[in-house]
Amino acid sequence: MFPKFSLRSMFHGAGGGNDIQWCFSQVKGAVDDDVAEADIISTVEFNHSGELLATGDKGGRVVIFQQEQENKIQSHSRGEYNVYSTFQSHEPEFDYLKSLEIEEKINKIRWLPQKNAAQFLLSTNDKTIKLWKISERDKRPEGYNLKEEDGRYRDPTTVTTLRVPVFRPMDLMVEASPRRIFANAHTYHINSISINSDYETYLSADDLRINLWHLEITDRSFNIVDIKPANMEELTEVITAAEFHPNSCNTFVYSSSKGTIRLCDMRASALCDRHSKLFEEPEDPSNRSFFSEIISSISDVKFSHSGRYMMTRDYLSVKIWDLNMENRPVETYQVHEYLRSKLCSLYENDCIFDKFECCWNGSDSVVMTGSYNNFFRMFDRNTKRDITLEASRENNKPRTVLKPRKVCASGKRKKDEISVDSLDFNKKILHTAWHPKENIIAVATTNNLYIFQDKVN
Amino acid sequence: MLSKGLKRKREEEEEKESLAVDALWLDPGHAAVAQAPPAAASSSLFDLSVLKLHHSLQQGEPDLRHLVLVVNTLRRIQASMAPTAALPPVPSPPAAPSMADNLLASSDAALSASMASLLEDLSHIEGLSQVPQPLADEGPPGRSIGGAAPSLGALDLLGPATGCLLDDGLEGLFEDIDTSMYDNELWAPASEGLKTGPEDGPGKEEAPELDEAELDYLMDVLVGTQALERPPGPGR
């Protein structure tokens, strides 16, 4: 089950013909070490074509980057991502009934598939989901009869001739406008949103409930999962993530803090409290500790593009599940097993509660997830090889091939290795995204966004 | 449990710097933490967990996942400590998890109770929307009906009192009408689980429930009507 480490392949990145060499491409965000809290990146997401890359931050802002159209002459790199639009998605709010501030932090962004010239995305904070329309304007009408060019109204008596206003080109303006606001349906904190493959509905999940919405209707949502016990004293488990199946519009999954994943079929009943399938791996008795439950808590669940598999991330590992097999995952990859002996310290400083995300590449052959010290890991499912890379401004030159990293768990530390005790646990990579079609990845450190590409020869 | 405008702190770990942890735990050779832990180490972990629990509950809106995981871990520790009852290192360890349970429940119950009283005061004011919403380009301007659903528990506590402002006035108005058909519990406001907003929107999830007496009356009316309409049979 555990992939064999191949030191040779890890240090000589390009072993076989299929091995990817990752290169630094760009980094976005402030350079200084003093991180402004509002700039902390809280979500990263490519759109369906990969042309747009959205980030959300703790200050409630959304920044969208657009890939330049490839320059056919310059074939040694793919287009760069530049800022396309920035807007304030959520503002801090005050819940007057509970006397509490509602954070404006963007928890998730999900893109809708493009249907016309405009782009649409859903963004959510703890309580409210918003549908944003991002549209371009590159023409404006000129030649009004009753208005001057600067907008002042003309005195109608001065108009002696009439003309038809015409559209003239202008500098490109990208506008974001909120088209729908889906509010007041969640008592607890929203952790996930997922758009259905019917492109008409979507789900939103908080700690205890999952609601189904229609994109056109904001004053009504249907509750499809409710795990709130009648007596809150009996609460032992919360929902941690949820996602719709990519092809099957009646199927979705949700994961829990106890390490289980439930697959539900909305055709079975209106309230999907009874799952169709329950995915759970039995606990390894040799690894039992007080922290077993905490480290089994699933922080992210993602279906493969094919829809045949799903991937879950818990504190120490990434697991791939075949939807037809409930009793154990088909593949398990250890992200940072060297932390197992440090669980108590990580419990003390709350790092054990960090929620790492994970993602698939476009062909479902490689999976990626983040770790500490600004390291991130990739696992190739076919070759069973894995690699650890670092997002750091030290590798700043474009097209510099990233050097693989290695953490020394114990014993003698080799040159170029880093010992576990030297890891910086404040530098965590929680959010990563993979371009849907190409080998371009976006990796978020605390307040910077790194873009890496594979080396194009 | 209400705290006024308490903003969630990011740097929670700064408050725990001074907590002493046995060097034992930091030994990298120490694999799984507790198959059979020393009592002292177990109790320090217990203290740490109780501290975390308190800290979590002190927040205006605790992170439920964090809370649940800490409570469950506390239960595990407590369960493992129970056999070593010779010298309880911490004042009444068995009480703590139940205290945790109570705190968990009371945070929600206290919340519901305060919400209920607040809502009662607010019931005369139009709308129940908790937060002013920015204008959005939606079609029919709908009040967010969904907001009523999650807080239904609190709303239920309100009971019938708030909806009956015009009770006395109505009876006076309808004095000259034969109200015998309406003189039953079915129509009294008290029998319905009313929401106190001025609108009962189309999205209302709970229908007023009829009890047995009302059902019986309905059946009588229906049967009585049918008896009148039944055509005379042959030979009658």
From TrEMBL, chain A:
The gene is PPP2R2A. This is Serine/threonine-protein phosphatase 2A 55 kDa regulatory subunit B. Keywords: Repeat, WD repeat. GO terms for cellular component: glutamatergic synapse; protein phosphatase type 2A complex. The keyword Repeat applies. GO terms for molecular function: enzyme-substrate adaptor activity; protein phosphatase regulator activity. Belongs to the phosphatase 2A regulatory subunit B family. One of its GO terms (biological process) is regulation of chromosome segregation. The keyword Lipoprotein does not apply. It comes from Pan troglodytes.
TrEMBL record, chain B:
PROSITE patterns: SERTA (PS51053). It holds the Pfam family SERTA. Residues 38-85 form the SERTA domain. Residues 190-211 are annotated as: Disordered. It comes from the Eukaryota. One of its GO terms (cellular component) is nucleus. InterPro entries: E2F-SERTA_domain_protein (IPR052262), SERTA_dom (IPR009263). Residues 197-207 have a biased composition (Basic and acidic residues). This is SERTA domain-containing protein 1. It comes from Callithrix jacchus.
